[in-house]
Protein: O-methyltransferase-domain-containing protein
Organism: Collybia nuda
Amino acid sequence: MASSPETTLARLSELLDIVDATSKSLRGFLQAEQRRKTEPSESNKSFSQSVADDLKLPFHADTKISGQAALLCLACERIKQAVASPRHIVFEAATSFWTATALKIAVESDVASLILKISEETGKEGVHVDILSRYAKVEEDFLARLLRQLSTSGIFQEISPLVFSNTISSLTLVSKEFRSHLGIGLYAGMNAAAVLPEYLSQRFALAASADASGRAAEYPPELLAPFNLVSKGKPFFQWLQLPENAAYAENFNIGMRGHGVVEGLAFLAVDYPFVSLPADTLIVDVGGGIGAAEDLILPSAPHLRFVIQDLKSVVEQGVNDAGPNMKRWIDEGRVRFQAQDFYAPQPREVEGAIFFAKSVFHNNPDSQVLRVLINIRQAKPSKLLVLDRLVIPHLRIESSTAAGESEIYQKLRAGVKLSGENGSDGDAEIVSSSQRITTTYDLYMGGFFAAKARTLDEWRTLLLQGGFRLTRLYPLRASTGQAIMEANPV
């Protein structure tokens, strides 16, 4: 489908209009922030402003502005698609594994920390690659080329020939938690991706054979998920517990702490109106681990009560490793840990509570999620809150006519609205944003667990099958596509 000059002009005009409008909003916000930070009342900044400053996110103190920033990122992606050679775009996608490999080496060698340390010791910006090579234990010429490749993505920068310094993006690699989080994908994720063609081919052949003989397909353990081909039939979490994988298991646990920072979960207490819930509202945190969500919510909403459910070993860790705040909340009766398999019926004592499922469904197939939902529904909850990822397909990205381009961008500007129970449009809205990381997470879930990140329609259908109607969306402003989905029992 070749684009005419008229169509290309229409597409580019629509995109540049978005760039102009969003840039104006962001510029105005930053100017206001500059003025705020010079005022004596700077010490009285809001919770959102404090979190945004801590996470070094210049646009996320305000949800509307963070939405404008997300829309600008999407427009910039589309501009590249509109003006670059289509063959170059495809070639770049086909060779992106080199970028991932370069990042893997930089992470394993801790290059960002080395640059930071040596720069501080010498008082100079940047480090020559011959020095960096000796510390990183990577061949000098290839290290320079790897860092040069990463610099095209804004990760590191070559400030003079063969002298590299950190960027805002590469400085995130100084965090051990974030490096560990990346390591999950750069090791197990890359291994699962490498066997995906074989997995799909074998699954298809078995399904076709079963269909021809009129029976249901049965798959051996190594074909239940792509990663199982790597692990010789062991599901990911079982593989993680093998003695020979102890180092990787430790890295995984550290990496999951980094996951909360990646998703900007520090905004959780204000992205959903927990503070507006009535005093002593009971919230059951299903699969809540050691209480990470409560650490984020209770400081802003100390009037709530939580029951944190997980497996016995996990809740014991939650109690034994509780920090000062958690110990105080336990003593005050604000938090109680409860051993509970979420595939089993809920105890009567939590009937009528709000149930909260944070990031526990994305690594489970629909059949398993449905089991959990049915158990929750039988506990007569007042409502269900699901914090999980939403895939928002933008469908068409180009048209063959100028009128078609206008229609595409009219929908893109409108974002996603969820109709209320009475059929009228609700005021919850998700601004259109890039889906690159969201769809990458979808492939992660498929590669590791044969699970998925779900679209809005898939969530709506699954919740309804479990006895709930989706009524509101509360997007997490700094996440990679997560939202709190509020659902009422039906």
